[in-house]
Design a protein that fits this description.
Length: 407
């Protein structure tokens, strides 16, 4: 084999390429073939250092994968959320969301680091430049969400909130309504977005500690919700519901609401896409627990397959968003929750609808296989009289069983 020099300069590179050209016809197993292999390796390393190939643009990567797998734009619709979104993404008008990136990585095998160039920048932009001092630091410290904090907590606001965000999953977890308008919020006008975001982060941090089974989104349908609500018949129904959901890959946590949040519950997603249902129990009654749980489960089943990874955050005392009726997603979740608890057709034909006596409440609950609190809750809601049937709704029962993870 001829003497081989390291390839360190442009002159070395040109000389090596010339020699490679001379050796292209070398027979395998000969000294010339060995020299060719060594030179090719040296040239490749030099070129990687001198002429690095950047990570391809996300749109270019998608187009390349489409061509490689002979895919049409229609094939992308289930992954990106519809025809319009496919067009906007491929034209560069819409950034990739975390939901889209997960689908493209899982279904098409496009590396996440390629897709995160764009979606990651958007998530990072959402997660930067908050006014850390506007978070309710004193209340968070009092709740011991970050353990024991020494020194002046307000002076440590940025560090403390970044610590909480990291426990939730890092910068990509910052999607709870603080950094951009979110039409999925069912809330009144006096909600503090910083307190809301902190509560979301705490919910996600608690959920990440929970061990759950495999999650199958397709299994979360109306019958699934009915199976959950039938657990209410047991004296430890809330505990059974939590265990049942964990077996199906859904984390159920209870996190006390912060001041100026006015929350009942939320359907969230961890950074890895796994669903989380977080309830506040601000109204600690069985009827309220089962309705909130069914509503958030409906969001998981009906909306997590095609939305943009935004959370669904609910204050059920807010009849509608300012200036109009509830968003379509909230109406759909209400529909499933009501049908899972007390189907409308059953309600209309029952004696309870016209005569909500204790005897009729118990009879309908027995027919449906649910706790009487659920039927009593429907009566109280329909008649807008929350002094009716108070002995049925199980005040103080849920917190006794599930407790708070803090405060």
């Amino acid at each position: 084999m001829a003497h081989i020099r390291p390839v360190r300069t442009e002159a070395d590179h040109k000389a090596a390429l010339a020699r490679i050209d001379e050796l292209m016809d070398a027979q395998p197993g000969t000294p010339e073939a060995d020299e060719l292999d060594v030179l090719a390796t040296l040239v490749e390393r030099y070129e990687e250092h001198q002429f690095p190939i950047g990570i391809p643009d996300p749109v270019q990567a998608i187009l390349f994968r489409m061509e490689q797998a002979d895919l049409s734009r229609r094939d992308l619709e289930p992954l990106l959320g519809g025809r319009a979104k496919v067009s906007e993404v491929l034209s560069g008008k819409r950034p990739l969301t975390l939901t889209m990136m997960r689908a493209l990585t899982t279904q098409l095998g496009i590396p996440a680091e390629v897709l995160l160039q764009e979606g990651g920048r958007e998530a990072e932009q959402q997660a930067t430049e908050p006014d850390w001092n506007r978070f309710p630091i004193a209340e968070i410290v009092a709740c011991k969400w970050l353990g024991r904090v020494t020194g002046n907590a307000l002076a440590q606001a940025e560090k403390l909130m970044k610590d909480l965000r990291d426990l939730a999953g890092g910068p990509q977890a910052a999607t709870c309504g603080l950094y951009r308008k979110n039409d999925h919020l069912r809330q009144g006008a006096k909600v503090d977005p910083y307190a809301l975001t902190a509560w979301c982060w705490r919910s996600m941090a608690v959920a990440r500690k929970e061990k759950v089974g495999a999650f199958d989104l397709s299994s979360v349908d109306l019958e699934f919700l009915r199976s959950v609500t039938k657990l209410s018949r047991h004296s430890d129904g809330p505990v059974r519901a939590k265990k049942f959901l964990a077996q199906h890959g859904i984390r159920l946590v209870v996190v006390k609401h912060l001041s100026r949040t006015h929350l009942d519950g939320a359907a969230l997603r961890l950074v890895d896409g796994m669903p989380v249902i977080s309830l506040t129990l601000r109204y600690d009654r069985l009827d309220n627990f089962w309705y909130c749980l069914a509503h958030e489960l409906a969001h998981v089943g009906r909306h997590f397959a095609h939305d943009d990874a935004q959370p669904y955050i609910d204050d059920f005392s807010a009849a509608s968003l300012p200036g109009g009726q509830l968003p379509k997603e909230e109406q759909e979740a209400d529909e499933w929750a009501n049908e899972a608890l007390v189907p409308q057709s059953v309600w209309q034909s029952s004696a309870v609808s016209s005569n909500p006596s204790p005897t009729n409440v118990i009879a309908l609950a027995d027919d449906l296989g649910v706790h009487p609190a659920i039927v009593a809750g429907r009566v109280r809601y329909v008649h807008r009289n929350y002094r009716l049937l108070t002995h049925f709704v199980g005040s103080g029962e849920v917190r006794r069983q599930l407790g708070y993870s803090d405060c």
